[in-house]
Amino acid sequence: AQKVTQAQTEISVVEKEDVTLDCVYETRDTTYYLFWYKQPPSGELVFLIRRNSFDEQNEISGRYSWNFQKSTSSFNFTITASQVVDSAVYFCALRPFDGGGSEKLVFGKGTKLTVNP
Amino acid sequence: DAMVIQNPRYQVTQFGKPVTLSCSQTLNHNVMYWYQQKSSQAPKLLFHYYDKDFNNEADTPDNFQSRRPNTSFCFLDIRSPGLGDAAMYLCATSRGAGGEKLFFGSGTQLSVL
């Protein structure tokens, strides 16, 4: 079974704090992709990052960083020095590559981040 | 400029009255998806088109249909909306299959009265 768990339903921080959003996934596939999407109040999901299962290198993009650990099936997302504009719902998603043509992106339930001034 | 455009942004329909939601894209992507997202929940895939090939998810109700007359446009038809169909409907595209990232529209918020 394919599953993504985002245990944190809501997080509230004060501007400039660092915050980590947790994501744990389950899959039996050896090949898969992991994603993070941001959904601001406007509603549109915005792609943030994609990782394939063979690339465990962590990535940093400005204030954003991602920690992928296959040993713990986790793909956590950290925002450094958070800003009010970071307030959104963040979704972690799994795309198993089963070769059968399924295009299903399995989403976690999302973490609502509120950054207060 | 918006690349995946959904109209209208808000749609109100009556119980049982057919409704159509539209999506267009300027990306020339092969794959178009429809997701349903209920309040405070994750998006749920209803179906997708790979070019003209329609792929329905096993748990998508028969009440939901889709059309893709050309590469740029895709429609979601709800034949007899029920109160439980009130949700945000998100259209997305991707260049191809596999690990391609999705580009989402802003969604259509459907209310059923």
Detailed description of the structure:
The complex is a heterodimer of chains A (117) and B (113). The mean pLDDT of chain A is 91. With 117 residues, chain A is mostly beta strands. Chain A contains no helices and twelve strands. In chain A, the strands form three sheets. In chain A, strands 2, 5, 6, 10, 11 and 12 form a six-stranded mixed sheet that branches. In chain A, a hairpin with a 2-residue loop joins strand 7 and strand 8. Chain B contains no helices and eleven strands. The N and C termini of chain B lie far apart (33 Å). Chain B has 113 residues and is an all-beta fold. In chain B, strand 7 and strand 8 form a beta hairpin. In chain B, strands 2, 4, 5, 6, 9, 10 and 11 form a seven-stranded mixed sheet that branches. In chain B, strands 1-3-8-7 form a four-stranded antiparallel sheet, with no helix packed on it. Classes of the chains: A mainly beta (117), B mainly beta (113). The interface between A and B is medium-sized, with 22 and 26 residues.
* Element-by-element helix/strand order of chain B: EEEEEEEEEEE
> What's the number of helices of chain A?
0
From the spread of the alpha carbons, the general shape of chain A counts as globular
The topology string of helices and strands of chain A comes to EEEEEEEEEEEE
Helix-strand category of chain A: mainly beta
Mean pLDDT across every amino acid position of chain B: 93
Q: Tally of extended strands of chain A? A: 12
Give the N-to-C terminal Cα separation of chain A.
Answer: 41 Å
Can you summarize the main beta sheet of chain A? 6 strands, mixed
Helix fraction of chain A by DSSP (H/I, runs of at least 4): under 10%
Largest interface: A-B, 22 and 26 residues
Q: How much of the sequence of chain A is in beta strands?
A: over 45%
Task: Give me the secondary-structure category of chain B.
Answer: mainly beta
**What helical percentage do the residues of chain B reach?**
under 10%
Mean pLDDT of chain A: 91
Cα Rg of chain B: 13 Å
Low-confidence stretches of chain A: none
The quaternary organization reads as heterodimer
